[in-house]
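Project standup — Tuesday

K.O.: blocked on the structure for the chain from last sprint. Re-posting the sequence here as requested.
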Amino acid sequence: MRYQGGKSRIAKQISKVIKNEISRRQIENFQTDSRSDKEQCVLDRESNLTLVSLFCGSCSVESKLTFFTKKILNDKHEYLIELLNGVKNGYELPDYISEEQYKYIREHKDKDKILTGFVGFGCSFGGKWFGGYARNKTGTNYAAQSKKSLLKDMDTLRDAEFICMDYRDVPLPDDCVIYADPPYNNTTGYGKEKFNSEKFWTYARKVSQNHIMFISEQTAPEDFISIWEKPFTRTLDVNKNNQFKVIEKLFVHKNNLKYIEDVVA
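H.V.: unblocked you, prediction finished:
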């Protein structure tokens, strides 16, 4: 689904890095000389792992992490979580949204929160929350496009638990892997409140003492190490000339580097 800051273009690569790293760590932890025994132990072990995503967004990365049998996917945006739970429970999304419908839904957000979540992101330019009715010169049907993408991702998320709370309040099971794709530093969240990156990195240091935590960001404090990166171009608004290049990275805290070797992107 169209979603500002979403990772749909690099989701497969991020999920592969996480999968490879989890497998590598599991193999290192098994005291046996048999490679086949280690690999079987890893498969058994991974089947019991829980994925906790702190800022799940449109779940483009989370939907690719299929080796987790349990997923707890959180986002603070109420309408987004209403949408994800609604689709999970069989809500029928529309195939088309007119500009008039878009404006009406924008002004009556609580009438149907599931539909509002879909239109607010999936039918807006660049996936920005009610950032303007999406259109182009070729007449692309953005509602149909977003619906198809969301339903495809939801195929692997039918058993996921979607919750809506502050990331610091999300429960962390003992045997879990954490993925975080926080709002970029110096940007605002869905409302007018600016995201506090300093508090996030403090939280990340704390939980990295007991859990493996992967963080998608462009920059990080010095004690967080990039284990993968990918440059690509983003479009800021409807003006296609207003583009900028970024390098998306995947970080772990230095305390999580004990078993890291070369990561193949």
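K.O.: great, moving the ticket to review. The longest helix spans residues 11-29. The two ends are 24 Å apart (CA to CA).
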